[in-house]
Design goal:
This protein has 15 helices and 17 strands. A hairpin with an 8-residue loop joins strand 11 and strand 12. Helices cover 36% and strands 15% of the residues. The protein has a 6-stranded parallel sheet with strand order 3-4-2-1-5-6, with helices on both faces. By secondary structure, it is of the alpha/beta class.
């Protein structure tokens, strides 16, 4: 995939309408109060928005929020599948479920952060959005309703993409800045690029520079740290990194599948028995390619999955029945921290253990600390590893923390991201 894409700085937006795809899919309070519990994604879009407004563009921002079901019938079917009583499912309840995913709280918070009014449309491409987009002047910003309120959004419906592009007019520009959504070929992430010149915002540019740079032309040695629960979710990443990396470090729940594959006992630890042959193939492939593949040498085990569980350290692959591995052990911590010390680039995706429990966050914390002390370019690949470095207080010390979990994983797999592929090449 070509990572060298045009950005907002490569196009003239003065006096033009810009359709800007953001990722405003923010977490909301569960009580239905409409309170945003974390506005990080809104803040992440501010540099691009501010730049466009300063350049004299009229900005039509859009985003999805959650997973609304645009039809009552489909919503009722999904609720029934979840075990809800069909008789209790009313159109009123369905409308309430949509209301909870409206963009009002986002428009309000965005306005506060920008220090200016954000005009909110009552629909995505309907009469209200059309009227408000037509009236929008240079230096003003509006926000469309939740793009997933339109049935055609997730289907990448060309008619919807065209209607969204039409809001910006014949000389409009499309700016993509929602990295968390670029792995999906939706109307607002990819389809609109067929009707407007498409460029990236600063957020996507940064992701392409850092992750794209680390994959295409890394400062060596390149060390990849892969953790998390499942081998199956990281197959593509491991395959791709075996072609690029100098060292691959395996931790987290998926390390027990590797341990079992090598003839070890893993007790009640997380295990994907369908992937044992794959693990052995990867170990062999690493040997053939001269890639150092580091696996745990010891592990912290617990007698139950709980923050206050009894725990002890055992050699890797020697976990007794009734016990489960919840973190890498002290010798493994030394081995892994030593491996990142002299790295040129480190990519980290997935925690080393159950970092949500303080007692079993030691391995993840040690790796985060080692990364904060190295001179290497450090890239955290979104999702749980991003949450871990934030929670442990090391976020400021990392070179780059990706804003997209699924997108950064697919990026590391070497897959083409539809929302990036559709942008104009430099």
């Amino acid at each position: 995939m070509n990572y060298n894409k045009k950005t907002v700085k490569d196009v003239d937006v003065k006096g033009k309408k810009v359709l800007l795809r953001c990722d405003f899919n923010v977490p909301m309070a569960k009580d239905g109060s409409g309170v945003i519990t974390d506005d990080k994604r809104i803040r992440a879009a501010l540099p691009t928005i501010q730049y466009l407004l300063d350049q004299g563009a009229a900005v039509i921002a859009c985003s999805h929020m959650g997973k609304p079901e645009p039809s009552f019938e489909k919503w009722a079917k999904k609720q029934t599948e979840k075990g809800k009583d069909p008789a209790s499912l009313t159109k009123e309840k369905w409308e309430k479920s949509l209301e909870a995913l409206c963009m009002e709280p986002v428009a309000k918070r965005l306005g506060e952060l920008l220090g200016r009014d954000v005009v909110l449309a009552g629909d995505v491409v309907g009469p209200d959005a059309q009227a408000k987009a037509a009236a929008l002047k240079s230096g003003e910003i509006m926000l469309l309703q939740n793009t997933r309120f339109e049935k055609g959004e997730t289907k990448n419906d060309p008619a919807l993409a065209k209607a969204m592009a039409d809001l910006a007019g014949s000389d409009g520009v499309y700016v993509s800045d929602a990295f968390g959504a670029v792995h999906r070929a939706h109307a607002s992430t990819a389809g609109v690029a067929a009707y407007l010149p498409a460029v990236s915002g600063f957020l996507i540019q940064k992701e392409l520079d850092f992750i794209g740079g680390a994959l295409a032309n890394p400062k060596r040695p390149l060390v990849a740290i892969l953790g998390g629960a499942k081998v199956s979710s990281k197959i593509g990443v491991i395959n791709n990194l075996l072609e690029i990396a100098d060292t691959i470090i395996i931790g987290g729940g998926m390390s027990y599948t590797f341990a079992k594959a090598q003839g070890g006992t893993v007790g009640d630890s997380l295990l994907e028995s369908d992937w044992l042959d794959y693990c052995n193939e990867m170990i062999a492939k690493a040997g053939e390619k001269g890639v150092k593949l580091l696996l745990p040498v010891d592990t912290v085990i617990a007698d139950k999955f709980a923050p206050d569980a009894d725990s002890k350290v055992v050699p890797n692959g020697q976990i007794p029945d009734g016990w489960q591995g919840l973190d890498i052990g002290p010798e493994t911590v030394k081995l892994y921290c030593g491996a990142v010390k002299d790295a040129g680039t480190v990519i980290w995706n997935g925690p080393m253990g159950v970092f949500e429990f303080e007692k079993f966050a030691v391995g993840t914390k040690a790796v985060a600390e080692a990364l904060s002390e190295t001179d290497a370019i450090t890239i955290i690949g979104g999702g749980d590893s991003a949450a871990a470095v934030q929670q442990l207080g090391y976020a400021e010390k990392m070179t780059h923390i990706s804003t997209g979990g699924g997108a950064s994983l697919e990026f590391m797999e070497g897959k083409e991201l539809p929302g990036v592929a559709c942008l104009l090449d430099k």
